[in-house]
């Protein structure tokens, strides 16, 4: 597998050349486009800390993809502690949703990545604070695969894959609120982990979302932890 980054007048292009066929599903899941045996992903310029971002990508990409392909347990605890310390020093407001939030409530569940959600106003501070770990630039999702969910998205790596999402759209809470939308932001609850206060949405929002999505296995794991059994 050869991992490169190229730049033209308007785009930063990540290329993965001739990876083992076993990586195909993982790369497609990451929205790489395959042409022959080359996988590409493009990002619009300009990009803050561009050279550092490219360096991070070259350093961490193969390790990240290999961990995901093998289904290895994610070192999410180490990653969460590390990133929480950086965010605290930078004064950034952030919160966690998804499977990591469930794990923080004591639910035995496999965590496949970390989902950090931020406010748009904190993006400049985020890009600077995490410059040594961002591998895919945090940029506008307009016309991209995540455009219907959030306004900005990027990826970082430290111990495991970390997703940075900013400004979930009001529309994600239609017809009912989800566990990562604007409504969830108004109902965040604190939990304590590794010496840090971590904000997460209430379990009831996770329960209702995973139920609508058809993840019955996750629903059954959440139910015993609900104080209100009227679900």
Lateral strand order in the biggest sheet: 5-6-9-8-7
Assign the CATH architecture. Answer: 2-Layer Sandwich
Mean pLDDT: 94
Shape: globular
Element order: H for helix, E for strand: EEHEEHHEHEHEEEHEEHH
Number of domains: 1
Helix content: 25-40%
Question: Would you kindly provide a brief summary of this structure?
Answer:
With 231 residues, the protein is of the alpha+beta class.
Written description of the protein model:
It is a single chain. Helix content is 33%, strand content 29%. A five-stranded mixed sheet has the order 5-6-9-8-7. The chain has one domain (2-225): Beta Polymerase, domain 2 (2-Layer Sandwich), CATH 3.30.460. It has helices at 24-29, 50-70, 76-90, 99-104, 123-129, 182-185, 203-213, 216-222; strands at 2-7, 11-17, 33-35, 38-44, 94-96, 114-118, 134-140, 150-158, 160-168, 189-193, 196-200. The mean pLDDT is 94. A hairpin with a 1-residue loop joins strand 8 (150-158) and strand 9. It is an alpha+beta fold and 231 residues long. It contains eight helices and eleven strands.
Keywords:
33% helix; four-stranded antiparallel β-sheet; 8 helices; 11 strands; five-stranded mixed β-sheet; Beta Polymerase, domain 2; 231 residues; alpha+beta
